[in-house]
Amino acid sequence: MDSSLPADVVDLPQGQISYRAADPPASDRPPVVFLHGLLVDGQLWAAVASQLAEQGVRSYAPTLPLGSHPTPMRPDADLTPRGIARLVLAFLAALDLRDVTLVGNDTGGAIAQFVLDTDPTRVGRAVLTNCDGFDTFPPFPFTVLVRALRHPALVSALVPVLRSARLRHGPLGFGPLARRPFDPEMTRAWVAPLAEAAIRRDAAKLARGIDPQDLLDVSTRLGKLETPVHILWGDADRFFRVDLGRRLAAAFADATIDIVAGGRTFLPLDHPDRVRAAVLAAT
Known about the structure:
Elements: E1 8-12, E2 15-22, E3 32-35, H1 46-54, E4 59-62, H2 81-94, E5 100-106, H3 107-118, E6 123-131, H4 142-149, H5 152-162, H6 165-168, H7 184-191, H8 197-209, H9 212-219, E7 229-234, H10 242-251, E8 255-260, H11 267-270, H12 272-282
């Protein structure tokens, strides 16, 4: 997947969603759909998608309305986590994707759990990398970020600060989430949409809808799912601890888990080969 190419756009009831599809255009392997986290876009998966394409697997990386989306959603769109899950299901239906391998990271892993809880019929299997689970939604200190996002005026005041790559990549920004240096152009694209009032409105709707009790409630039904799940978890993540990954694996009826030594939250950036291998093994 070449992130420099223009993204495709699909019209959904909630609004327009941009996405990048990685070749080949046709494949006899199940399609892969990637779900990213808060204040991140589909570029997170570019290296994984490219490696899968080399193996003949077609993948789709939508940019979900989690604060880094380029086009505001419709004013009446439900942007709660359950609402985002319904948006993902609408995306799968619009592209007629079936027997999907659903891959989630960070907040995207929580969204994947809501998808499975809402309607798993188009999902053949799931791969979850370091992500929210149970009432860890979000983990500290991102609870502070979510509270801030609930106030668009506060976010507006922070936008000029986020133009500094040094701050974006520092310990109070994206820095602790990966070991490899961040691409400044990529992280600029992650925060630039917040300069638009309607994007801040969407982010506030999402943040106000995040409730740890909702994901905890979902966890009580994971054991009833027939969907096989593979957990790939970095053990050096200070936010999503490895015990959370093991606990999440135990909650599903059919789950396996692999630990990535030294892995942090953004495994798709640091260890795209491990994520690619997990996806191929799952299919």
